[in-house]
């Protein structure tokens, strides 16, 4: 990567970023053993994030399949890929998972070429026994299970673990081949607990996200107000801000952000949400509105990196505000953010974090249980982020925080008549607290930050 | 949209682009009637392109459901959306589908507020009878079917149409509620036949794609060769091209392209495939390679627009080539392209187009039936493009071309030892032939095009 691409001072991170990610499949094998099942099967396309996580295969847009079975020393995993994708599948699924020289592995064979970092031997099969990924998965299960002389024949029922939302036709193929399907939460559990390499990827994407934020803040700082103090005081709807000789709109601002993301090698993924005034109260606004002085401009930037990991950051600015609603909102949200972060450490029930943020917002007079379209705090305080933008753990859900959890902390308050104010950072839970993955300053009035282009 | 965003001279297109798209649901209602079914059901998340097409709802990343039933005058459609998305669902699914004033509709009621352009009344329901989209869909089917006094009670079996790949848990909810599932190709059929408004969206995205290509070509044209004629003639691996004082790589070039896409308001969607030399023979290469003089540089750009429609264009360039393999490849691929396009008109079997391209490549000495990793033509000549990058019709498949089909025409030849050469355009089949959606020049030697930034 060239000098202009890497952030200054992170050569090691750039180096680390080149090593392919690899997933430890032992929890999946263990789940199969614990359920007295014969195999785990996943079927989906490149948009299936479980498959992306399990295989690291960036995949085709038609369904493909993964089969994992217990075997000596740990297990075997077969990726059934379309023939046109063999080379890519071999590279991403098999080669990337081979143990490096001298690396201790769970696999005890002498042949270094054949070892895999987690003891799960991987192979790609493209020879098809039919066109359907579910049919191919069923055939591979048959082959691997019978080949090992395992329980039962084709006709005896045996259990296969799969996602509850596996495509129905794939489920039918598996069932017709004599498998009972049972669901498992092993994949979700594994995904929630990030490895240091995954945290590195998330940090890199989050750095790109905050670079995009810096660009947006700079554009807002450069934008001009055209009404006079006299006109402003009349309380009419004010004319839009002007930037680079044109009225500033949410779409123009979005394109500026997205260009920075592209220059950093991540994609906006359609997730650059920008609202201004009332549309800032719409949590997923991607339309085109003029941006007026005095309005809250809410920017929620969630790009996706080349390995599939997301970033997620939100800031809210006001150009030439009157210090009214947005000032109250800022003080409340800032306090809620601090209260939430103060709770974050291993062993704390996740919902405590949401509870503290909500209590703080309530103390400032905002309804902490507002419904959609009402004034107040309308959503949860945070969610996990990984190869999905929303995954476990939820900060409103069951369970305790553990080291390696990566979650957003994003209190916000909204008034459909006025606007919205949210502050969001991405944190990783550490052994004794948390770390913010990429820091970004706070403040209502937009400034040109030193590192903004 | 500001002046810098719209391409010059297309104010009407910019105007048209603001009108929300709306889908004619009559073919779905008709399929339900023809199958003697009671309803059509779809369940999926924002990555489900059928749902995107049917609802125009840009959707959440967790499952939601659509139910369509026949009713007077034509039908009813209910979108079950998460509560946090009600406003967006009302706007995108319901409001956008209302008939404009004075527009003739299939709906004969007097209340203009209540009419929909296709006579299918739309509503959003967020009140949940359970957390699962499949369970909610089953309840809505019960409600709509029983409410109309239609066939059967809760216990009598009735048929519901759905995609064969509907999530298995949703299928189980529907079956437990007394529905037999049957699959339908009505959605794929409707999607393959584009309306003028859809063609307009595709054209706009394709214009952004060719703007990205112009940027890549300009970068290649500006890139410098550092070896001398004497060094070059030695046949060693030549040093990479240099651009803006750094070695040029596929990733640097990709970021340049993706910035242009972002500036045009479309997203690269992870689909900017750039290979150089041997990696140009890898059909889905998104890695980072140095780009050397004499190598084929293959760029395949497939961005996605804000309404979900894709573009798709490929060109191949060589900087300081020796006129060897790439010249033969160019002549052959160019001839295959012409031969393929010569066949395109309504009523022609789609596979004739592929057959002509393959025959032409064979005439130039390239294997038209090469397998993956072999030298020759390794893929089909084209595929449909819409809200999926790959959809119907296939130019190697059954069926005839019809007006409104939008397909790629993309012959290419590859040699894993040398490189790849492909030319791809996106065309719409018209009443008497075809139209290229956004023209882009041809040529091996990169040039700086006038409209490239």
TrEMBL record, chains A, B:
Keywords: Hydrolase, Metal-binding
SUPFAM superfamilies membership: Creatinase/aminopeptidase
One of the Pfam families matching this protein, by short name: Peptidase_M24
Record GO terms (molecular function): hydrolase activity; metal ion binding
Ranges of biased composition (kind: Basic and acidic residues): 229-242
InterPro entries linked to this entry: Creatinase/aminopeptidase-like (IPR036005), Pept_M24 (IPR000994), Peptidase_M24B (IPR050659), Peptidase_M24B_aminopep-P_CS (IPR001131)
Region (Disordered): 1-23, 223-242
Superkingdom of origin: Archaea
Domain Peptidase M24: 201-431
UniProt feature, compositional bias: Low complexity: 1-11
Keyword Metal-binding tagged: yes
PROSITE patterns registered for this protein in UniProt: PROLINE_PEPTIDASE
Family statement: Belongs to the peptidase M24B family.
PANTHER family per record: AMINOPEPTIDASE, XAA-PRO AMINOPEPTIDASE P-RELATED
Name by which UniProt lists this protein: Peptidase M24
Taxonomy of the source species: Archaea, Methanobacteriati, Methanobacteriota, Stenosarchaea group, Halobacteria
